[in-house]
Amino acid sequence: MDTSLKALRYFMAAVNNGSITEASKEMHVVPSAVLAAVNQVEDAFGLKLTTRHRAKGIAPTATGQILMSRIQHLLDEYETLMGAGAEMRTQLTGTLRIGYYAPVAPAFLPGIAHAMLKDNPRVDIKFTECDNQTAQAGLVSGRFDVILCVAESMQPDVTYETLIEVPAYLLVPEQHKFAERDCVSLSDLADENLVLLDLPVVSEYYSRVFEIADVKPLVASTATTLEMVRSLVGAGVGCSLLHMRPETNITYAGDTVIEVPLRPAVDPLKIVLGHLPDNPRRIVKYFVDGLRDLFSTKDPSRYLVTLRSR
User: Fold this and answer.
1) How far apart are CA 276 and CA 139, in angstroms?
2) Residue of 244, 11, 275 lying closest to 108 (CA atoms)
3) In this model, does residue 88 exceed pLDDT 80?
4) Identical fold, 94-165+269-303 and 168-261
C-alpha cells in the first residue's frame, strides 16, 4: 500500500505533538483526518510505528523513532525541491542551455548573455554548437532549453518563430576585382574559385541556389567553421557565399575581406528561435524576450549585407 506526502506530514505532526487533537489543530484539519493518516502510514510500512493511549496520547515506537528522521528528511527534501521549482519560475536562476546552428550566432548571443549574467550571479549559460537536427532533437529531449537554427526541416513538436531573414552575399579578398562593385550575380561566379561552408542545411542551400542559377561552382576549398571560410577568403583562396555578417571585416589572420551584395537576390535563409511552449522558467522567458527585442525593436541591419548597407 502506498502513502502520500500529506499523510506523512500528518503522521509527523501527531508523533511530534504527542496528540492527535493537537496535530489536527496544527494542520488545520479534523482529528479523524490525522488519525486516518497515521493508520495509512503504518499500513504502508506494514509496521507498528506508534503507541496510542487515551490519557497519554500518541508516541512513536522504537521502530517509529528510527523512521521519523528519514520521513522528516524526505519531507524536507520535497519542500526544498518545490522551493527550487518555484524559484525557477519566478527568479533568474539556474543553468540556461542553448543549442545553436547559426554560423554567426557569436555576433549577437554574447550581448544577450552579458545582459543576463551581469545582474544575475546565480545564472550560468551553456552554449552548444550543433547541426539543425541535433538542435531540434536536443530541445525535444530536454538537453536544450532554447535553440537557434535555420528554418529547414523543422520538427512539428518544436515551436519556432523567425528572428530574421538573411540574404546571401559574396565575400571577397580586399584586392579582388569584385571588391569595388556595388553588386554581383551568381553568373559572375562561373569562373571564380569558391570557398564554401560544409555544413548540413547550408550545403544543400548552396546546391539549390547554384542549380537554379545554372552555375557549376568551382569549389577550391570547404570548411566547417565560418571563421576558417573567412580566413581562406582573406588569404586569396577564393570567394564565398555567406549570409549574416559579423561586426568586423578583419579575419583571424589579419586580412581584410569585403562583403558584396548579390543581385538578383537569391532565396534568403531564415534564422529561427525554437523553444517548447510549456517551459515556464523565467530564465528561458528572459532569453527569448531578449532575442525578440534584439531583432524586432533594435536595428538588425548591421547583420545584413544589402545595397544600402554598403
Assistant:
1) 7
2) 244
3) no
4) yes
Angle at CA 37, nearest 5°, toward 34 and 43?
145
Residue where the block lists cell 526544498: 80
**Residue 309 pLDDT exceeds 60:** no
CA angle 80, 85, 91 (to 5 degrees): 110
User: Where do the structural domains in the chain lie, given as residue ranges?
Assistant: 5-90, 94-165+269-303, 168-261
Cell 546552428 belongs to residue: 101
User: 256 versus 152: which is more confidently predicted?
Assistant: 256
**Nearest of 98, 80, 91 to residue 122 by alpha carbon:** 91
The pairing of strands 50-53 and 257-261 is: unpaired
pLDDT score of 117 more than 70:
yes
pLDDT surpasses 60 at 138: yes
Residue 306 has pLDDT above 80, yes or no: no
Contact in structure between 104 and 303 (CB atoms under 8 Å): yes
CA-atom Rg of the chain in angstroms: 31
C-beta of residue 215 within 8 angstroms of C-beta of residue 189 = yes
Strand partners for 259: 171
Measured over all CA atoms, what is the biggest interatomic distance in the chain, rounded to whole angstroms? 103
Q: What's the burial of 55, exposed, middle or buried (CB within 10 Å: 0-12/13-18/19+)? A: exposed
Unique residue bearing C-alpha cell 552555375: 215
What CATH number belongs to 94-165+269-303? 3.40.190.10
Contact predicate 42/48, CB 8 Å: yes
CB of 103 within 8 A of CB of 199? yes
Best CA proximity match to 231, nearest among 277, 171, 191: 171
What is the CA 4 to chain-centroid distance, rounded? 35
| Mean local confidence (pLDDT), 105-120 | 86
